[in-house]
Amino acid sequence: MYQNKLQRNVILSATIIGIGILLLSLSYRGSLNQFKGLISTMITPLQVHIYSIVEPLFTYEQRAPEELVNLNATLTTENAILRSENIRLNETIYERDMLAALLNYTQLDNVHTYLTANVIGKDTSSFLQYIIINIGTTGGVQRDMPVVTHAGLVGIINEATPRASKVLLLNSDQMAINVKVQNSRAHGVLFGQASKDMRLRYILLDATIKSGDLVVTSGLGGSLPANILVGEIASVRSRAYDVFQEAEVLPLVDLDGIEIVMIITDFTPTDLNPLLSTPIPDDL
């Protein structure tokens, strides 16, 4: 193998030396110019072809200012159209994903019937406590109907007109919801606050609750269906000299980002006041 490589190197070296001697001999005889002419004849057509391809790339075509202004306006319009189309497609994808999540929620929960609505207005104060939706009494919405998303409870219908309704959010300081902690089954009342979190009160001291526990509606009081997700416990305050425990609860629904909601239309709140206020007969 080494001998074959050595032979190839010797042949290559001899060939290069031979070509050098030939060119030197032609130079002395004046024949090298003919050789150059032959090479030039072979290469010239190739040069012409390459130039015909490259030349337009370096040609500067002057245009009138009016034409440049019109061209700029056309490109600006096309860019605006493409940007608008891109925004529309992104919104379509986002809405599709939201509707898919809501549809999946309704398929998993076959207990209730739902009516979908779009959010068309929000509380303009610094503390978001209500939203406005685009369906009212003509669409079947009534006061006190629960409002949810796939993530959990949003609030209840507080007011309804023929074509729009006001939803009081669960973090409103006007809200008090009977709930239970899912793991321990401990019952309490969840109060809305001016801040985004909520206060869970009236939890017995011997109940085991901790950060991360989920809170759901209990159904007590008859104002809401049971077992709707509400929030997650963020922190617990339990002191030996207190009568009850308290906890901070964060809503599972992104209240700032709500765009589509679902109204539970087949639930009718129960008024327990007549039963609770019934006087006890004297003969008992």
How would you portray this structure in words?
This protein has 284 residues and is an alpha+beta fold. The mean pLDDT is 78. Among the domains are: 53 residues; 80 residues, Rod shape-determining protein MreC, domain 2 (Thrombin, subunit H, Beta Barrel). It has a six-stranded antiparallel barrel with strand order 1-2-5-4-3-12. A six-stranded antiparallel beta barrel has the order 6-7-8-11-10-9. It has four helices and twelve strands; from the N terminus they run H-H-H-E-E-E-E-E-E-E-E-E-E-E-E-H. The termini are far apart.
The CATH class of the domain at 173-252 turns out to be Mainly Beta
Number of alpha- plus pi-helical segments:
4
CATH topology of the domain at 173-252: Thrombin, subunit H
Q: Kindly name the structural category.
A: alpha+beta
Shape: elongated
Terminal-residue CA separation: 120 Å
Q: How much is the average pLDDT?
A: 78
Helical fraction equals 25-40%
DSSP strand count: 12
- Please mark out the parts with pLDDT under 50 across 5 or more consecutive residues, or reply none: none
Summarize, please.
This protein is of the alpha+beta class. The protein has helices at 2-29, 32-54, 65-108, 273-276, and strands at residues 114-122, 130-133, 146-149, 152-160, 165-169, 176-181, 187-192, 198-204, 214-217, 229-237, 244-251, 260-264.
